[in-house]
Amino acid sequence: MVDQLRMFLDRVAAAVPPPDLVNEITKLAAEFNARLQSHEVAEYNQVAGQLIDLPGRAQLLTPAYTVEELDDQRAAGHVRFGRHHLGNNGAVHGGAIPLLFDDLLGRLALVGGRPKSRTAYLHIDYRSITPIDEDLQFEAWFEREEGRKRVLRGAIRHNERVCAEAHGLFVALRPGQP
Ligand SMILES: CCCCCCCCCC(=O)SCCNC(=O)CCNC(=O)[C@H](O)C(C)(C)COP(=O)(O)OP(=O)(O)OC[C@H]1O[C@@H](n2cnc3c(N)ncnc32)[C@H](O)[C@@H]1OP(=O)(O)O
């Protein structure tokens, strides 16, 4: 379902459909919304965002990224941004790139039985355009850990070209901290 929804968002962004089709799809979407509404659950029971083996954890906000290598210091894999994430002129929107890094670095910050943490800051350097509709490689790694502070870095590449780099601080939560 999430794969189809991701594709739907890409299609909506790309299409200029005739009015009849817009009306038809609007009715279908309203029907889907109504059917799902009766199955809503509390945050801690939802599965979207919890399906760690699916691209982007089945979290629609996040680009569909796949982790292929993971240990307690480093993660690597690939991501493909679609038309939904287009900024302009073939380049990914500058706001979509931190989404990937926040999720990826935040996920790595948890690995190895570490307690939950939250992003204190996330700095992005946009080194060159990040293209949509291309397979891109990413890497994330620990720079250092000091008490509750975890400093991580990441990069997205299109083949040999660096598209963006990230530098983030994640702070481990104290018991009871939201
Ligand atoms: C499998 C599932 C994977 C899921 C991955 C998803 C990851 C998504 C992660 C997120 O996006 S979380 C949402 C975005 N972040 C937030 O909403 C965080 C909001 N901010 C806070 O909750 C608090 O500010 C925070 C927990 C980050 C820190 O507050 P605390 O009161 O716990 O920490 P404190 O102020 O005691 O600072 C602890 C240390 O961190 C340092 N620090 C905190 N914020 C800093 C900052 N912004 N810049 C530099 N240093 C900072 C602080 O100086 C101090 O350093 P020292 O120990 O050396 O003195």
UniProtKB/TrEMBL annotation:
Keywords: Apoptosis, Cell membrane, Cell projection, Cytoplasm, Fatty acid metabolism, Hydrolase, Lipid metabolism, Membrane, Transit peptide. It is a peripheral membrane protein. Its EC number is 3.1.2.2. CDD domains: PaaI_thioesterase. InterPro entries: HotDog_dom_sf (IPR029069), THEM4/THEM5_acyl-CoA_thioest (IPR052365), Thioestr_dom (IPR006683). The keyword Transit peptide applies. Gene3D superfamilies: Hotdog Thioesterase (3.10.129.10). It comes from Amycolatopsis acididurans. Its main location: membrane. Residues 89-160 form the Thioesterase domain. Signal peptide: none annotated. Belongs to the THEM4/THEM5 thioesterase family. It catalyses: decanoyl-CoA + H2O = decanoate + CoA + H(+); dodecanoyl-CoA + H2O = dodecanoate + CoA + H(+); (5Z,8Z,11Z,14Z)-eicosatetraenoyl-CoA + H2O = (5Z,8Z,11Z,14Z)-eicosatetraenoate + CoA + H(+); tetradecanoyl-CoA + H2O = tetradecanoate + CoA + H(+). It is found in: Cell projection, Ruffle membrane; Cytoplasm; Membrane. This is Acyl-coenzyme A thioesterase THEM4.
